[in-house]
Specification:
Shape: globular
Radius of gyration: 25 Å
Strand content: 5-15%
Distance between the termini: 36 Å
Helix content: 40-55%
Number of strands: 16
């Protein structure tokens, strides 16, 4: 292998990757067998296969497969292709959307979710094929904003279990419980405690819906094998009084554990899953702010884990902020000059500020002076107004960014100044909303932004779901005109500005990064997920758009490109893990071989290891 890699490195001809395939196909140790084409060995036959969504393919089973697997006579005689199955499903979907509604309160998006979920229950391969081929339409159904509605109504929507549930009543039993999950290999876990689902608050055990939705995107965008993902709900109670009194609620009807008792439950869970699956990656999702940072710091140097609300949101925001600099016609190296007003001091808001300040500091030399200069570019406003060092009981995570007394005098600001006051006085290049307060960027705030020191002020209304967005693109472009740059967390339509001009509504969705972070970590075999790996992911996303697109105000790519974006992001994560000597390799590709791959070869390595929804060869074997 080493000699092959050295020979490849010497080759500079344009058909290098084509010859890479040819050479590697002659050596069985290599990664040329695509993830989706590996044969599947089954220990079941007949109806057991048809009732298993992982393996069922319905009328697409060929006649030889029906004979081999004991299915002849259990299916209609006509064999159809996977594309014919999808065509039939899509036709039914159009017709059923109207009739699948469960009364007038059941919205069309929720009806779509119901129909897709039924397909998921029957045939996973076809479900993911439908999702991938219609990702722009269905990503908002399986993920934000519809997933929020699903979580709010989960007890009524529950039909069959998906994922695992650990509760405070399972203390002392989790190590044995993990062996109840049927998969011997799990690559990715998304875990939540349901305490802060999107911007909807404490939804308790209903929060499992967000873990399921995130993993759907890991499969669709990153090509993680769906048989090796696991959504997890850790139920430590709920403080939602409505759920505590609801006789149909499926979770523990007691108030949430706090303090050391809470931490001990999470500790036991982490020890259990990493004991059974030592190489698994755990993404923490929608934990309330007071636990998000604490748990991240507790585990990140020991386990392969990250928190998407803190680190994923930050990475996507940084990519957008760097894109906004480019859209202003300036090089990304000018990012440290941007003045940024941040609305929201929760886990997402502080996570973005921390990551953005580190990015600025790195550009300025990564020394103490650089960090102080970067800190001074942020003004954080929470529900009580501008955060300054005069505030009593400042959250420890926000304290480094509290404005100093010496700075406030010449700015004409004071502790608790309103968002409008801050925007008027600071004249920021960017206002960034992570407040979960819909409409916070009012007409007054947007009018004040007209005096921005930038020729193209940027508005990031990043709160989810849609109703929590700080403003809409229509409101932003109406007041600020065509020069504005707009991004949001949930999807909005572009705005017709007349005269053939378009106000582009960019969706700064975490799905641009978290699938690539997970896939890159998996394929590198990195021991932990470092800040450098996260930074590499964000910078690759920021550079993905070409110059012409960016100057038009398009700072995030369309969701339709998500598979290619994820491939590029994952490759950047792999290369950074190698550079930091964190990589330990994956399958037959060890760390030394990873280090020898060029950038193009790394991308090809990632692509080859991405699962695709094709029906694999099935082989029956007796136990």
């Amino acid at each position: 292998m080493a000699s092959i890699s050295r020979n490849l490195r010497r080759s500079l001809v344009p058909d290098r990757l084509r010859r890479l395939h040819l050479l590697l196909s002659q050596h069985p140790r290599e990664y040329v067998t695509a993830e989706c084409h590996r044969p599947v060995v089954l220990h079941k036959r007949g109806p057991d296969i048809l009732h298993d969504p992982w393996f069922n393919r319905g009328t697409a089973f060929s006649m030889t497969e029906r004979d081999r697997l004991g299915l002849r006579g259990l299916l209609p005689p006509n064999v159809v292709s996977s594309q014919q199955q999808i065509d039939r499903f899509m036709l039914d979907l159009t017709r059923l959307q109207k009739y699948a509604r469960d009364g007038p309160s059941d919205t069309y998006p929720l009806a779509k979710w119901r129909i897709l979920n039924r397909l998921h229950d029957r045939n996973e391969t076809m479900y993911y094929k439908v999702l991938m081929e219609n990702i722009e339409e269905y990503a908002p159904i399986v993920y934000t904003p519809t997933v929020g509605l699903v979580c709010q109504n989960y007890s009524g929507l529950f039909r069959r279990p998906r994922g695992m549930y650990f509760s405070s009543e399972d203390r002392g039993e989790m190590m044995s419980m993990v062996y109840n999950w049927p998969a011997d290999q799990v690559d990715m876990i998304v875990v939540t405690d349901g305490s802060r689902i999107l911007g909807l608050g404490d939804l308790g055990v209903h929060g499992i819906g967000i873990a399921i939705g995130k993993l759907d995107l890991y499969v669709a965008a990153a090509g993680i094998n769906p048989q090796r993902v696991l959504p997890v709900m850790i139920d430590v109670g709920t403080n939602n009084e409505k759920l505590l009194k609801d006789p149909l609620y499926l979770g523990l009807q007691e108030h949430r554990l706090e303090g050391d008792e809470y931490v001990s439950v999470i500790d036991e869970f982490m020890e259990a899953v990493f004991t059974r699956w030592p190489n698994v990656i755990v993404q923490f999702e929608d934990f309330q702010t007071k636990w998000a940072f604490r748990l991240l710091q507790r585990y990140r140097k020991t386990y392969r884990m990250f928190n998407d609300d803190v680190q994923g949101t930050a990475g996507v925001a940084i990519a957008g902020l760097l894109g906004a600099v480019r859209a202003q016609g300036r090089p990304m190296i000018d990012f440290p000059k941007q003045k940024i007003v941040v609305a929201g001091a929760g886990s997402a808001g502080i996570g973005v500020v921390n990551a953005a300040s580190r990015t600025m500091a790195r550009m300025l030399g990564n020394n103490e002076v650089a960090f102080e200069s970067a800190r001074s570019q942020f003004w954080i406003v929470d529900a009580h107004g501008l955060i300054t060092e005069d505030r009593a009981d400042i959250d420890p995570d926000a304290r480094p960014f509290a404005r100093r007394k010496a700075e406030l005098g010449h700015q004409g600001l004071s502790e608790g100044a309103s968002l409008v006051e801050v925007v008027k006085k600071v004249k920021p290049d960017v206002v960034l909303g992570l407040s979960a307060v819909g409409g916070l960027f009012s007409k007054e705030v947007l009018e004040a932004l007209k005096d921005s020191s930038s020729s193209r002020p940027a508005i990031f209304a990043m709160s989810n779901p849609t109703k929590n967005a700080e403003c809409t693109p229509g409101e932003a472009f109406e007041i600020l005109g065509e020069k504005a740059i707009f991004a949001s967390g949930s999807p909005f339509h572009d705005v017709d500005l007349g005269d053939g001009k378009i106000g582009h509504s960019n969706q700064g969705n975490n799905m641009y990064l978290f699938p690539g972070i997970g896939l890159g970590t998996l394929l590198s075999g990195a021991r932990v997920i470092s800040d450098g790996m996260l930074q590499a992911a964000a910078e690759r996303l920021a550079s993905y758009m070409n110059e012409e697109e960016v100057l038009q105000g398009i700072i995030y790519p369309p969701i339709s490109r998500i598979r290619d974006i994820t491939k590029e992001v994952a490759a950047a994560v792999v290369r950074e893990a190698v550079a930091e000597e964190l990589a330990e390799g994956y399958r037959d590709m060890d760390a030394r071989e990873l280090a020898r791959l060029s950038e193009e070869e790394t991308i090809e390595y990632v692509k080859t290891n991405m699962w695709s929804p094709v029906y694999p060869t099935m082989i029956y074997k007796t136990d």
